[in-house]
Specification:
Muramoyl-pentapeptide Carboxypeptidase, domain 2; 2 domains; 3 helices; four-stranded antiparallel sheet; 19 strands; mainly beta
């Protein structure tokens, strides 16, 4: 969700992982890919500014080189630079670009150039390419996803832009809740802007200050080199910071060949488990236990099991260290290793999914961990079982409302699951683990 700290804009739902590569404009054409002339707010193109006699009719054609880059303050869409595929638009007072189509997933780059990402927004028509704050001179503010966004004070002229009216639930709306306006027994859900009933199972107390006790997720170089984010490394150490990379699926203590991940994914997991351990240390319903880590990739980036001639995952997943299977936090168990958190057998046949509500799922620690995985702006998706997903979504809203989570998970939760089989790949095989997929940093941190 864009502008989550300022006003509510509800994003288009993201799909499970797809391959979304950059669609950077390559500058082909005489005008270097820039728009020949911006259209007006009614969709008309202002090319006929000079009549057949060579007389100017009073309308000046802007020089494409004089148009404003994304992230610049604007009043009208005609001021903003764009391309034929991504026309310039003025969104709530900042120049952006229209997406080339509906977002294939939240934060996709395929509908934008390589320096913007695609989201939709409630109250604003179409899909929008939100510029990366570190790719342009951002004259707005930077949100938790690293995008350049308007501030609450920014505005534009609705007579020359279709993107100047904030959502009715947006910033400054007196009907939007905050931590003060909700009555006793309710919390403010920052995603919806509405007061919600406080779950009686929500851990009591105030969140401790844990930021000094958790490692950084971005302690690597996206440009490569000796500390490259993209380098495949064996998860190390095998047990520390609230996690446990124990041997499984044919591994041994001396041969954990399924435990290779990108450096940036390893750093993110270590940060998220450390934060979960620190934040939930005083939760009294059960002491913290280390979280079990499952399949990642093999040393050469292959799907785990390829070495033995038995790849354990579908083609395109668990390759090159972008993906990882991780246990759910559990209650009443001797450890948090990968195991089903629910009944999954019907009529003697394994359904490979939860057939009833989870019974050993530690909902709040699992939700807290999933929330902290949103610390990185390059999280692509987290997949869970269809009966786990609604519980996690509700728990995240509770944790956000109570202040346990304060990142983009509170406004744009990248959680995928299927209640019914829709062919998206999440319906089965996630009753005993969650799946995280990370995109590669493309524009640094």
């Amino acid at each position: 969700m864009r502008l989550s700290a300022l006003f509510s804009l509800c994003l288009l739902a993201c799909a499970p992982p797809t391959n979304t590569g950059d669609a950077r404009v390559n500058g082909e054409g005489d005008n270097g890919g820039r728009q020949q002339a911006p259209g007006d707010n009614n969709g008309n193109n202002n090319n006929n500014n000079v009549d057949n006699n060579g007389n100017n009719n009073g309308n000046v054609i802007p020089d494409p080189n004089d148009l404003l880059d994304p992230g610049s303050k604007c009043d009208c869409s005609s001021e903003c630079w764009g391309t034929d595929d991504n026309p310039g638009i003025c969104v709530l007072g900042l120049c952006m670009q229209a997406a080339a189509g509906d977002c294939s997933e939240s934060g996709s780059r395929s509908e934008c150039d390589g320096r913007s990402r695609c989201w939709g927004a409630e109250g604003l028509s179409g899909s929008i390419c939100w510029p990366d704050a570190n790719a342009y001179d951002c004259e707005g503010s930077t949100d938790g996803d690293g995008s350049c966004v308007p501030t609450a004070e920014d505005s534009c002229d609705s007579s020359c832009s279709d993107f100047c009216v904030r959502s009715e639930g947006g910033g400054g709306d007196v009907n939007r809740c905050d931590s003060i306006t909700c009555p006793d027994g309710q919390l403010c859900d920052p995603s919806s802007g509405q007061c919600i009933e406080t779950d009686q199972n929500l851990p009591a107390g105030s969140p401790p200050d844990c930021e000094r006790d958790v490692p950084a997720f971005n302690d690597c170089d996206p440009r490569g080199g000796a500390n490259s984010c993209a380098e495949l490394i064996q998860f190390n150490p095998v047990r520390s910071l609230g996690y446990w990379d124990y041997p499984l699926n044919g591994e041994t203590v001396n041969d954990q060949y399924r435990s290779w991940a990108r450096r940036d994914l390893m750093l993110l997991i270590q940060r998220a488990t450390a934060a979960t351990q620190c934040l939930s240390e005083d939760w009294d319903y059960q002491a913290y236990q280390d979280l079990g880590l499952g399949d990642m990739s093999e040393r050469d980036g292959s799907i785990p099991g390829t070495r033995e001639g038995r790849p354990g995952h579908p083609p395109g997943t668990h390759t090159n260290g972008h993906d990882m299977d991780i246990a759910y936090y559990q209650v009443g168990q001797r450890n948090n290793w990968l195991r089903s958190v629910c009944e999954h057998v019907e009529n003697g046949q394994d359904q490979y999914r939860c057939t009833a509500d989870p019974v050993i799922l530690d909902v709040y620690r699992s939700a807290l961990f999933i929330g902290r995985l949103h610390d990185t702006p390059y999280l692509r998706v987290i997949g869970v079982d269809g009966k786990v997903g609604p519980l996690i979504r509700n728990a995240v809203a509770q944790l956000c409302g109570a202040g346990w989570l304060r990142n983009s998970a509170c406004s744009r939760l990248k959680l995928a699951y299927e209640v019914e089989d829709q062919g998206q790949g999440w319906y089965r095989f996630h009753h005993h683990h969650l799946h995280i997929s990370l995109s590669a940093p493309t524009n640094g941190w």
